[in-house]
Prior knowledge:
Blueprint: H1 26-45, H2 51-54, H3 59-68, E1 82-85, E2 91-95, H4 110-120, H5 132-145, H6 154-166, H7 170-177, H8 181-197, H9 200-210, H10 219-228, H11 237-246, H12 259-275, H13 281-288, H14 309-319, H15 329-338, E3 342-345, H16 349-362, E4 369-376, E5 383-388, H17 409-412, E6 417-418, H18 424-433, E7 442-443, E8 448-449, E9 469-470, E10 478-479, H19 481-486, H20 490-500, H21 503-511, E11 531-532, H22 534-545, E12 549-550, E13 556-560, E14 566-569, E15 575-576, H23 580-595, E16 609-614, E17 620-627, E18 630-638, E19 652-653, E20 656-657, H24 662-675
Parallel strand pairs: 1-3
Antiparallel strand pairs: 1-2, 3-13, 4-5, 4-18, 6-11, 7-10, 8-9, 12-15, 13-14, 16-17, 17-18, 19-20
Amino acid sequence: MESGSAGPYPGGMVVRSPGDRAPRRPIRSIVTMVLVSAFCGVLVAGLLLPVASFVGLSARNVATGFENLPLDLEQEPTPQRTTVLDSRGRPLAYFYNQNRTDIPLEDVAPVMQEAILAIEDARFYEHGAIDVRGTLRAFINNAADGATQGGSSITQQLVKQILVTQAETRAERAEATETSYSRKLRELQFAMAYEREYSKDQILESYLNIAYFGDSAYGIQEAAQHYFSVDAADLNVKQAATLSGLVQNPSAYNPTRFPDAAITRRNIVLARMAQLDLIREQRAERIIGSDLGLEVRQLPNGCVSTDAPFFCSYVQNFLLEDDALGATPRDRLRTLNEGGLTISTTVDLRHQRAADSAVQATVDPTDLAIGSISMVEPGSGEVKAIAQSRPMGNARRDGETYLNYSVPKIYGNANGFQAGSTFKLFVLASALRQGAPPSTSFNTSSPYELPSDTTYRDCAGNDWVGSDDVSNSTGDGYFDMYEGTQDSVNIYFMKLEQFTGICKPAELARQMGLEVPTTDEVPTFALGVTDVSSLDMASAYATFAARGKFCAPHPVTEVLDSDGETLISNDGNCRRLMSRPVADTINDILRGVQQFGFGVNNQLSVPSAAKTGTTQNGRTVAYAGYTPALSTFATIAGVDRAGNPAGLSGKVIGGSIRDISGSGFAGPMWAQAMRALEDVLPNRNFAAPDLSRLGDADVGEEPPFVPPPFMPPAFPSPPPGPTPDPGPADPDLPGDGSPDDPRPAPNGPGGQGNN
């Protein structure tokens, strides 16, 4: 072998000829001998303070430092990755500051344990907190050439990692990583205490879980997954040697960036393992000649690259409002990103794909409009999907944004948009709750001057005072509730609102989770002047589908901590807001929209009900539709280039200029999303209404119906129309004979309504 050349084994070891040796330094060698002799006495005696004088430190300063140190290191849980699951239990997203999953030592392959000890602390199970041999060797080298080299035991390295992990300020991080003897002494003090509290196996387990292996992989489990796509329990010799070599300098030996350096370091580990008889030399030689065999798996962090980015963002912000994760927003964010949580969510990716496809087919990302769809399960409040036309990201020229237009402002930072005539249902429901029959009819000649200072009473007890005219866009004449709702007759609802007052519909909307400012307690409340999100409205309409039972919308059902203990459990906090006959009547009226009204082109193969919505200024169109199993709200809102609300008329949206109506624009988007789910939606019928039991006497919130003096004689209700067989009662829906409903389930056909 040539002088200075690297031999094939072990690990590229270099053999120098006598002529290559560095010149001796006699004076330094003498000093080194003196220091070594003294240091040996210190180690044998177990005393550390005299070391300070040998390395140029003040004994008084070191002693003071020891006095200020706690005897025990307060160990906190290591930061661990949080996993977000979809409704079927499959990973949807990950949140982490450090990509780590702690595992017990028994789940680490024995060869991995042997490899890390071979290269880092071969006598780990034989010595205490300090390895005298290793420390002495490092001390000799440091005293000889002025450097500060290794020699730390596994326990000392663990202590350092704990201090680094717990450091929250720049000064604390600098102190935990400084290259000095004072840091070594500080770590040794903690290590001695740590060895008294924990067994060797516990220390090794903690070390393997806290160690950094480079390329954002923390802990042995994630390192194995990241570099080789295997669990730590399944690591082989080559993989174990590669990973063990990384901890000394994860950046310099990063296999994805510096494979040659990683191979050289791996071979050193293999040579050491062979030297310690952990593997045979022949096997080590075979592996030394091989490549790294990487199968890199890059685990995403956050929501952008997930299958449901805005739902994922909703989950984040929803949990950041929950005190169960911490007392302050900062505490909650840290728990979310470091707590190793398992978050079970409500999203169904079949629904998510359907919603995404429908929105993307209707509104382009760079259009001066925003399309949004939200889906909520009636009777549970579980949010199944949210989608919008603008993708998540920073590229504004491509229409990307981080604003979540589908959810309330507290969760998405968007103000929402007016929902138009879909708000008429709050007035309709309030009238039915007060006992008004569906036959209630009005003359709806247009225009209608709203009476001032008479019957439009807000929640403060004040009558509305002002001057305003309302016109119909769908025809004049006498209309009852069926006709007035199915044709969305504005003046019908202005007159019906005189009976209900403004407060009761506004309060009902608030009870369904909508934020209605007091300034919106005006007669035109029924025409949808309040800014809302599509999720708000999907959730509100789910109340009717669930036969009067409101469940707060939520994207999370359960959150478990890293030990599997329940932190959060969410069932929607369901409560009844109206009697079943009231909700059944509303469903029957809205079925007519699909069967005979403006939504006839948006029908499904399963029973459905809907209400259209278009704002007076043509800025927003909406379609609120549902089956007994799914409530979906679709909306398209015009914006200007600054993102402010603007009209839709005349704009090219989705490649063409569209009809600006709820049924003709938002309706087809709704229908596309729902039709994609017809195979998974149950063919469940709505319950037939019992008109003899209207009002909320059983709920105990409203007085009996008393017709106001302006109300003309009511037309009779239209006869029942043909409907699908309702089939057997569904035990999952309230009011179908379940134990919480003392009244019998309704029987017979429903489907009243006319054109």
